[in-house]
Amino acid sequence: xxxxxxxxxxxxxxxxxxxxxxxxxxxxxxxxxxxxxxxxxxxxxxxxxxxxxxxxxxxxxxxxxxxxxxxxxxxxxxxxxxxxxxxxxxxxxxxxxxxxxxxxxxxxxxxxxxxxxxxxxxxxxxxxxxxxxxxxxxxxxxxxxxxxxxxxxxxxxxxxxxxxxxxxxxxxxxxxxxxxxxxxxxxxxxxxxxxxxxxxxxxxxxxxxxxxxxxxxxxxxxxxxxxxxxxxxxxxxxxxxxxxxxxxxxxxxxxxxxxxxxxxxxxxxxxxxxxxxxxxxxxxxxxxxxxxxxxxxxxxxxxxxxxxxxxxxxxxxxxxxxxxxxxxxxxxxxxxxxxxxxxxxxxxxxxxxxxxxxxxxxxxxxxxxxxxxxxxxxxxxxxxxxxxxxxxxxxxxxxxxxxxxxxxxxxxxxxxxxxxxxxxxxxxxxxxxxxxxxxxxxxxxxxxxxxxxx
Length: 454
What we know:
By secondary structure, this protein is an all-alpha fold. Helix content is 57%, strand content 0%. The chain starts with 62 loop residues before the first helix and ends in a 12-residue tail after the last helix.
């Protein structure tokens, strides 16, 4: 029996089976300039000509299935009555975007080299790495963007941010397990974001493991000591990803390849908030399901870290939460509106499962790759259930890998974290795993997060 450290406990999980869909970390150019704000305007017409309240077809298109999958979150979040006003907002924001990012993306896609509004990738890199002051005569869109992201909100407590990152580093490989199995692959059970990933070519075939590695590289940078300070790797990578998302959104809003009336905007505020929910409260639910004891103070620190990350990513501020309870309630309502999976979800899931066989793990690579594939399927069975595996077209498995992980995590989180030496040991072990994992993904190449064009 895992001790009850907070209101959310593994007793209500594998039923951690309710996860929300995710946006993408990909690099595709794109554009039109719009008025920049940190939050999205409420009265904007969508590219399809519809008005707010005219929901995309995906909205609540599979109510019985969604309610079944959301049932565990309903218990965890102690939701007694569905919030119809929140559901309306979720539907509306399927058609709203990160306006500040969209305005910058528009300026970056101006073709006229003499246009004073044009922003180059070189200027963006300079501002990202050295500050807007390092850019000679910065274009207005670039200056406005960095005026927002460089201004730390009053509510940010960097001591809490650092504590949240350290706590996640101590959790080691279990963080990667939850993020890959419960969050990423679990999110492929719903239509929408997976279809965009397939459209960008980002997670199929030979690119599957590289894109996964890029996402993991970004998360590792967020968790570095001082990573979310202005010059930290996590800050730079997070703002970089925000711009890439804005470019992808513009590209697919305007190229005629994306069905806005069916799915909403390619990268919208609803899906962005769902992605954030995977990294905070879904991570905490999943980590408890793997035996890690999380105290209320630790939970608040992890939530605070990702609240700041979400703000930098351009998630609407009223959808940034301080507590698991609030986030889980929000996530529950997000699951209620989801669509059935399309062929994209199973294709992505299979690419990541079979991609385990392509990694270079050094000695005995073939044997270790087969073990890792079997381990992944075993843990997916635990997190997603038999029906979840069927939804994704994955082979059935037995969750044999989970009991030893739970036992080890109980020792780590119940004993080792109580002593400074134990915490240092856990951080070192986590770092070693991360380095091995990145080498298996990238080999001798330097991992990057969606490298900017020259």
